[in-house]
Q: What sequence folds into this?
């Protein structure tokens, strides 16, 4: 006859009918003579019968019917992304491999010459002579800052339009591509401080505030949860609505249209910027 | 298409074979992921990742191995990775239902096919209770239990799928059933059995 220890060791196999006939006979014989093991076997068996009543939610026939199409689309997108990355690298490698070695030496010499010329011209030039300023965020001219801000607003607007027009109930979640939008938002959020920092001239406060508002929303989008995060998307839509983002973007555009083309860069030496930004 | 033909077709990069493979296994992969992560959107995402991974790395598949076992292992690993990324915190399921259950200790278990409101409530209570019990089981124990109990895999196949020894599989499964029994202890079916042995 088997011991209680052996009985416990075989209990799982016995419960799931994985004991051979002779093993099962010895196991049953033990249960007939051991109330503790018989009780445990009975209780664990009852637990498994309760677990048999578990119902798994069925996503429904539409989900299963569309599964292959959604998988195929994802495969195509992922392969397209990979091939772009691969082809760029491969093309660069191909181009570089065709260039003769002497041309690297010539290019190196030309680069050294150019660096020398640039350093020389910087040392010779008087302060403010080029009309360029170094902002905390990098070298951006005042007019360049406005152009960058406009570009930033346009890109943010396109992204936000895609987001606010998305209806989770009727549209395909994969066509919506939240992952792509999150990546783009992360990039936009990262660019915003430089653009805001450069918008420090008088009359640029409204533009700066709009970039700030967009930066906050881009960060919210970038931090959405995994999967489709329908609730998070809804909260962002409400935030866009509450802040009147599209109205502000339209007002900004109307203001710029009324003023005409982007403010030209001030003549050399006339840039009025905080002292810390001067070279 | 039998498994051998499927493997050969997929090895050739045959799209029809891959589709057949997805159709055969999509429910098993989706439900294992769903049971592991508890969220249908994430489960679909994981299941797609699994199929794409299988498709891309099919060259590494040993032709003498079982396709299903390999697939379960990839699904299990993808689900565990997902839980790690999300720093998984078990969600309490249906507390309101469980509270009402505890107020009505005389309520019995539902009977199959019942459609009256009382039976529906009881059924919901049981489902919530089972879900809550499963949350108390570790991911490894849960995976072993799910594969044995709902996917009907033999212990040796689970061991092969998850890369464990049979001893570990038995140990995980025993612990899982014990924990479930402890959590479902108040269930009249189990209580009845316990009482009959006292």
A:
């Amino acid at each position: 006859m088997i011991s209680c220890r052996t009985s416990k060791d075989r209990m799982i196999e016995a419960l799931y009918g994985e004991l051979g006939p002779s093993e099962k006979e010895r196991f049953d014989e033990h249960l007939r003579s051991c109330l503790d093991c018989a009780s445990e076997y009975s209780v664990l068996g009852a637990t498994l019968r309760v677990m048999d009543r578990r119902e798994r939610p069925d996503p429904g026939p539409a989900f299963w019917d569309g599964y292959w199409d959604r998988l195929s689309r994802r495969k195509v997108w992922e392969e397209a992304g990979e091939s772009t990355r691969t082809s760029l690298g491969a093309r660069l490698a191909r181009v570089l491999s065709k260039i003769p070695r002497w041309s690297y030496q010539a290019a190196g010499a030309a680069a050294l010459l150019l660096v020398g010329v640039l350093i020389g011209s910087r040392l010779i030039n008087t302060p403010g002579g080029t009309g360029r300023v170094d902002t905390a965020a990098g070298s951006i001219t005042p007019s360049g800052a406005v152009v960058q801000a406009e570009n930033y607003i346009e890109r943010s607007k396109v992204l936000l339009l895609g987001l606010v027009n998305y209806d989770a109930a009727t549209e395909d979640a994969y066509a919506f591509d939240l992952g792509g939008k999150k990546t783009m938002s992360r990039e936009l959020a990262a660019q915003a401080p430089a653009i805001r920092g450069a918008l420090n001239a008088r009359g640029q406060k409204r533009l700066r505030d709009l970039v700030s508002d967009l930066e906050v929303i881009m960060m919210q989008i970038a931090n959405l949860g995994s999967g489709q995060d329908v609730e998070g998307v809804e909260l962002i839509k409400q935030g866009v609505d509450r802040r009147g983002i599209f109205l502000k973007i339209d007002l900004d555009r109307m203001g710029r249209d009324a003023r005409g083309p982007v403010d030209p860069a001030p003549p050399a030496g006339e840039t009025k910027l905080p002292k810390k930004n001067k070279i | 298409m039998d498994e051998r033909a499927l493997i050969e077709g997929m090895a050739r990069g045959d799209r029809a074979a891959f589709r057949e493979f997805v159709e055969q296994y999509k429910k098993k992969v989706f439900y294992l992921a769903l049971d592991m992560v508890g969220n249908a959107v994430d489960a679909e995402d994981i299941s797609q990742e699994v199929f794409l991974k299988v498709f891309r790395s099919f060259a590494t598949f040993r032709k003498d191995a079982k396709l299903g076992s390999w697939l379960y292992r990839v699904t299990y690993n993808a689900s565990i990775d997902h839980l790690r990324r999300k720093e998984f915190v078990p969600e309490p399921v249906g507390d309101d239902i469980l509270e009402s259950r505890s107020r009505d200790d005389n309520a019995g278990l539902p009977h199959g096919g019942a459609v009256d409101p009382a039976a529906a409530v009881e059924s919901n209570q049981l489902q919530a209770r089972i879900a809550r019990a499963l949350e108390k089981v570790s991911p490894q124990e849960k995976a072993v239990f799910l594969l044995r109990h709902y996917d009907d895999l033999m212990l040796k196949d689970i061991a092969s799928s998850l890369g464990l020894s049979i001893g570990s599989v038995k140990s995980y499964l025993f612990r899982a059933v014990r924990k479930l029994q402890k959590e479902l202890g108040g269930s009249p079916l189990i209580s009845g059995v316990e009482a009959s042995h006292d």
Q: What stands out?
A: Chain A touches chain B at residues 8-9, 11-13, 15-16, 18, 35, 38-39, 42-57, 59, 63-64, 67-68, 70-71, 74-75, 78, 173, 226-228 (CB under 8 Å).
